[in-house]
């Protein structure tokens, strides 16, 4: 699914599209969100990460789970 999204926006090989289907990264990074009140169970918080050579250089976690501010495309581009 992520590859299809990347293809649809022309990401090509410029962006590595990674999923966390089992939530293992979210749990290890302390980014779990209890969405049971919304019927969703445990999820990952909304965030964007900038990595360099496999190292997280910047992690931008949304303070409001319903908003897209600090993890928006514009915010990530500004951080680069």
Write out key terms for the chains shown.
single chain, 24% strand, two-stranded antiparallel sheet, 3 helices, alpha+beta, 80 residues
Topology:
Layout: H1 2-8, H2 24-28, E1 32-34, E2 42-44, E3 47-52, E4 55-61, H3 73-79
* Uncertain parts: none
Share of β-strand residues: 15-25%
Q: What is the helix tally?
A: 3
Overall mean pLDDT stands at 89
Structural class: alpha+beta
Strand order of the largest sheet: 1-2
Radius of gyration of CA atoms, rounded to a whole number: 14 Å
Distance between the termini: 26 Å
Give the quaternary arrangement of the chains: single chain
> Helical amount among residues, as a percent range?
10-25%
The helix-strand sequence is HHEEEEH
Largest sheet, strands/sense/barrel: 2 strands, antiparallel
Explain what this protein looks like in three dimensions.
- The structure is a single chain.
- The chain has helices at residues 2-8, 24-28, 73-79, and strands spanning 32-34, 42-44, 47-52, 55-61.
- It has 80 residues and is of the alpha+beta class.
- The strands form 2 sheets. The chain has a two-stranded antiparallel sheet. Strands 3-4 form a two-stranded antiparallel ribbon.
- The model has no long low-confidence stretch (mean pLDDT 89).
């Amino acid at each position: 699914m992520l590859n299809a999204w990347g293809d649809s926006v022309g990401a090509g090989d410029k962006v590595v599209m990674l999923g966390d289907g089992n939530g293992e990264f979210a749990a290890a990074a302390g980014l779990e969100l209890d969405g049971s009140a919304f019927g969703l169970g445990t999820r990952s918080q909304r965030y964007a990460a900038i990595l360099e050579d496999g190292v997280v250089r910047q992690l931008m976690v949304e303070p409001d789970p319903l908003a897209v501010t600090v993890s928006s495309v514009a915010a990530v581009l500004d951080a680069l």
